Amino acid sequence: MLKRLLLACCLLSGLNGFIPPAVNAQTTAQTVITTGESSLELGQMRAREAAINQANRLAVEQAMGVYVISETLVENMAVVSDTILTKASGYVSGYKVLSESTKDGIYQVKVESTVSLEPLVDQLAKLGLLRDWNVAVLLVSNGEARASNEAAQSRLNQMIIEKGFRVADQNALVQLNKPAIMQQIQQGNYLAALPILRDQGVDVLVVGTTLTRPTADGPIETYGGLKTIMTQGRIDARVIRVDTGEILAAKSFQTIAGGSGQDMAEAKAIEQAATKAGQFFTLEIAKLPAATSQHVQLVIRGLIFNRERALRSALEKVPGIKKIERKIFRNKIAQYEIEFAGKADHLAEALANHASLKPFRFEIQSVSSGQIEAQAQ
User: Fold this and answer.
1) The CATH number of the domain covering residues in 2-23+131-286
2) Which class is 294-375 in CATH?
3) Does 94 score more than 90 pLDDT?
4) Quick one: residue 245, left, alpha or beta (phi over 0 = left, psi -120 to 50 = alpha)?
5) Topology of domain 29-126, per CATH?
6) Is residue 242 within 8 Å of residue 168, measured between CB atoms?
7) H-assigned helices in the chain
8) Is it the case that residue 99 has pLDDT exceeding 90?
9) Distance between CA atoms of residues 87 and 307, nearest Å
């Protein structure tokens, strides 16, 4: 019952007038400027071609670095070189030579290359090199007709796993069963669910509606007088980055399938729609930069006001912290929102070991996926 209520409420954002953040249409290509070189001993024409090829390889390598954590890239450079860099031209949809010159027996070109991201991240996913995003899928019927939600959700989860990502533990949804949170969700504000999902380690939320219904033409008669029920399957969904509420992509998918019975036809239609949705959304998730910053709540107890500003200055010196904003200071409790290049446990380690916080007797009390609690003086 909780799950059904949660799913229905989460979707009210798209159905009942709630205005979500703007969709961030992720790019399908990246323009990179690099310089390639080759020896003129090959002859000018061949040297020019080799220099351009090198520039394109460097462009693909630079683009690839956005989607693979640097340590992972270094560890797997041999396989990356064999499977991607040696075939770099296949990922470059076009290039423009900006300048070229010869000096000391070297042919040098400066090239602006356009790298096609979708085939690149798809290959990185096949190699298991993408960041293992934790993805939650929440689907619900819009109530107009019977819908095979379980078939659609299972198919989406399967495709998420096949892409190399993790499927969020559905038990995390139990944490949303709180009156204050549920009231906001019932009012159509799906953003109210995001802090809870973030604390449970969920990175990305796929939320949407499903619909199955017979086609307008009704059953069709096939060979031998058998009747086939033709059914429309539809999924309207969006992908949301949990820590910021940013909508990464939104799209509708529709298919038609037939079966000897209504249940069979519905299952086929909605599973085919889910397959289309899975192909699109997993690719959009794959295009998330690996080094995407996380927004972590830091709660520090025990501070007096005169020490708070000094501690905030000390926090700004911790490597990986991109931005820090104090939200609340009350009764010796300070709450900050920190934008950090990594996950909460990595931030906790950085805070615990940084010398600038030692004078404050800074001690971490607890760590969750979205929040760190600490004591200081």
Assistant:
1) 3.40.50.10070
2) alpha beta
3) yes
4) left
5) Dodecin subunit-like (3.30.1660)
6) no
7) 2-10, 12-15, 44-64, 70-75, 77-83, 117-126, 149-162, 179-186, 194-199, 262-286, 305-315, 344-353
8) yes
9) 57
